[in-house]
Amino acid sequence: MTKESIHTPETRLNNPTRRNLLAGGTALAMAGLAGFSRTAMAQAVGAAAPAAPKPLPSYVAWKDPAAMIVHTSGTLETRRSAFGTSIITPSEQLYIRNNLPAPDASIVADRDGWEIMVEGVKAPRKLTVRELKTMGLETVTMVLQCSGNGRGLFPNKPSGTPWQVGAAGCVVFSGVPVRAVVEALGGVAGGAVYMTGTGGEKLPEGVDPKSVMVERSVPLAAMADALLAWEMNGAAMPLAHGGPLRLIVPGYTGVNNVKYIKRLAFTVEQSDAKIQKTGYRITPPDQKADESQPSVWEMGVKSWINSPSGEQGPLAAGPMQVKGVAFGGIHAVKSVEVSVDGGKTWQAARFVGPDMGRYAWRQFVLPVRLAAGTHTLMSRATDAQGNVQPEGRVDNVGGYNNTSWRDHALQVTVA
Ligand SMILES: Nc1nc2c(c(=O)[nH]1)N[C@H]1C(S)=C(S)[C@@H](COP(=O)(O)O)O[C@H]1N2
Ligand SMILES: [Mo]
Questions:
Q1: How far is the C-alpha of 283 from the C-alpha of 157, rounded, in Å?
Q2: Quick one: which H or E segment has residue 181?
Q3: Which pairing describes strands 115-119 and 261-267: parallel, antiparallel, or unpaired?
Q4: How remote is the CA of residue 148 from the centroid of ligand 2, in Å?
Q5: Distance between CA atoms of 75 and 15, rounded to whole angstroms?
Q6: Are 175 and 230 in contact (CB under 8 A)?
Q7: In a mutational test of the pocket of ligand 1, which residue from 13, 63, 99, 256 has the highest number of ligand atoms less than 8 Å from its CB?
Q8: Atom of ligand 1 nearest to the CA of 199
Q9: Which residues face 217 on adjacent strands?
Q10: Is 255's C-beta closer than 6 angstroms to any atom of ligand 1?
Q11: How would you classify the pairing of strands 347-348 and 261-267?
Q12: What is the pLDDT along the chain (415 residues), one digit of tens a residue?
């Protein structure tokens, strides 16, 4: 790992361009694949050409290869066509986003023995997962979504993983409510206004730890629904998703859900780690990131169509079920509309399946009949507070928080 590659938070750790050019070239040369023309090689590694699918990295070899787009070893996206319609995203299909290489599997050898230091409470102390399990239990169904989901739909192509819609999933987490832990330790110590979680990765040597560590602060109010979770989708939390223990902050973007958490602190200031100070800020175009700009915290109302996915060839004429997902982010989602004429007219879609609560997404469906030709399909959700998914995005350097319904439009052709 080069110094440069770990200094930039959102994905440049695993920037495909230069590394894969080298690695790809070397691998091809070593394997003696003389049959590959120069053009084929250029296409395999080029940005515009359809890249040859990359194999699953070994630490997530258990994922469903057919469901995943492997951007880099630390960034895997769920294919739009792989999203099912029964709400929960299976763990094998859930996206992955690692700012640092995942920790060694030895950390899940003794899950209950994993320790977390709790600070900024009246009686700070270390707690094992075994102890946490005695302190309370709750489950939450929620959308886990990377702040950069939809970045690939920004016209100005911000640097970072060009996620489409698949850096998101709806999953069930179980663990102890953070507030129960805080109560057991005497309550939050005076003055704290943030909840700060620190990831348990081994940091690379020779660099300033603050420049690479995953440490995020969220407003103390987020504690109300936060969990320290050891289970996901009915199984022990996979290491790749933060096992043995993960901080869960429902309604907040992915980065705030700190994996393999080793320290939870109630703090007066936000973390001074780079990922908090200048990383994950809504930085206006052409400006430098700084602490005065909004941090990516609460998620806004959003929806998109998953089927038809636009990944297949021309569709057959006749009746069709347009399907997708809608969620409110920090609030519950209330309704969703679909347009099949590029946003000129809208029809109310119907929610399908059980309501799994405020933080979960809901699947929607609208039966339509499309004539031969090309159609532009999109969806627009409204949350319980009456906030409507916006037509446009807020342009920003990092390509974060894209909720634009127009950017998420799909073009389909009916034969
Ligand atoms: N310790 C730690 N926590 C982390 C990260 C990380 O790299 N290390 N990545 C964050 C980001 S940017 C996202 S989007 C989510 C991804 O969660 P997943 O890989 O379980 O899908 O985890 C967040 N928590
Ligand atoms: Mo993320």
A1: 15
A2: helix 178-184
A3: parallel
A4: 6
A5: 10
A6: yes
A7: 99
A8: 1
A9: 196
A10: yes
A11: unpaired
A12: 333 233 333 333 333 333 333 333 333 333 323 323 333 333 333 344 555 789 999 999 999 999 999 999 999 999 999 999 999 999 999 999 999 999 999 999 999 999 999 999 999 999 999 999 999 999 999 999 999 999 999 998 999 999 999 999 999 999 999 999 999 999 999 899 999 999 999 999 999 999 999 999 999 999 999 999 999 999 999 999 999 999 999 999 999 999 999 999 999 999 999 999 999 999 999 999 999 999 999 999 999 999 999 888 899 999 999 999 999 999 999 999 999 999 999 999 999 999 999 999 999 999 999 999 999 999 999 999 999 999 999 999 999 999 999 999 999 999 9
Q: For residue 61, give every residue at least 6 positions away whose Cβ sits within 8 Å of its Cβ, in sequence order, or none.
A: none
Query: Which H or E element spans position 25?
Result: helix 16-31
Q: Tokens for 46?
A: 């080029």
Phi, psi at 347, each rounded to 5°:
-125, 145
| Residue in this structure with the two tokens 């806004």, named with its chain if needed | 300
Sequence-distant (6+) residues with CB within 8 A of 189 are 120, 121, 122, 266
In ligand 1, which atom is closest to the CA atom of 145?
14
324 CA to centre of ligand 1 in angstroms: 24
Residue closest to 86 by CA, chosen among 292, 278, 353, 307: 353
Q: Could you tell me the distance, in angstroms and rounded to a whole number, from the CA of residue 147 to the centre of ligand 2?
A: 5
